[in-house]
Amino acid sequence: MSNYTITSLNGGLANVKGFFCDAVNVGMRPDADQGDVAFIRSEPPCDISAVFTSNRFQAAPIKHYQRYPKDFQTNFVLINAKNANAMTGQKGIDDIDTIMSTLSQKIEVLNPVMSSTGVIGYRLPIDKIISAFDKLDFHAKHSDKAARAIMTTDSFKKELAYRVELEDGSHFNIAAICKGAGMINPAMATMLCFIATDADIPKTDMEHLLHKSTEYSFNRISVDGDTSTNDTVMLLTNKLSTAYDKAVFSEVLNKLMFELAMMILKDGEGANKVVAFEVKGAKSDEEAKKASTALSNSLLVKTALFGEDPNWGRIASTIGASGVECDETKLTIHYDELLIYSDTFRELDKEREESAYKIMKQDQFTVTCDLGMGDGAYTSYGCDLSYEYVKINAEYRT
Known about the structure:
15 strands; 2 domains
């Protein structure tokens, strides 16, 4: 790979040449200081690629996007909070057309797309959303406002930006905002993510690299095992920098999306711990993924993490129930470097149990399970499940 340097930047999307963003509150969110309608706009138009939810009941904004031809360009993404515009049928799609028709009277737009997050089953408040068009500054670079506007149960905004200088001295910038804290499951994890870059990435590379990075990042995390109707990751490039190196861009995109995924996991509703579930020694990579994902989704495992209980029985039971080929005489389980279970050590002695308690009190640690069946390996990431998660979701609509 070519040598390159990467520098973290403050200001999120504002760092990317030719991109503009802003957000305003139109009354869908009670806090007037936090926006509920946001946009991302580019001069000139962008190539765009997207990955969407695997949920069969895809929301209206996704269906609206999918009506465009495969290699379309756009210059405008409109985003709203508090209403998912999901399970709203054809009327939900028609409502987007109405909103975009009004937008086109305010500013020149090319194939505008929309993304929504919030409560399922209600049509968009069209008049409120349209009222935003007289308040938004379409030439602003307010990434902070946009990042905060797309939050739902998030406790903090999520944005990143990098400057990447290539070996030949050319450079490109890449930045993203995203949201996510609940309904997070490794199946195009429940979230919205918007990535903007001025890199001269060919359209033919965009879809492949975005899917690859999604699998490396968002598809490996789980808060609660639920997959929403609105999951979206968009990659937009206006190519204004003229700089590009495929291998470098792929590595940087992986880094950007993985760090955002870890932010989402850290912000899991009521979560206190982030845990890596490394499964190795499986019959195949697919079997390792199956077992690892089962661990990151398991409610019993998550509650044990919250209680800081080194109960390896929940780990072993989940692997055995996952459907992968395994053998209790070959299995080993480690918490970080500490051996918790093997055929020789089936019961925790006092010394190892005390060491395990210390590990489980950490904010982050790794559970490693070696199945001893082959060379397959996979790591997914999960968090604990607390009382606060129940409270947040019991009161979601209120």
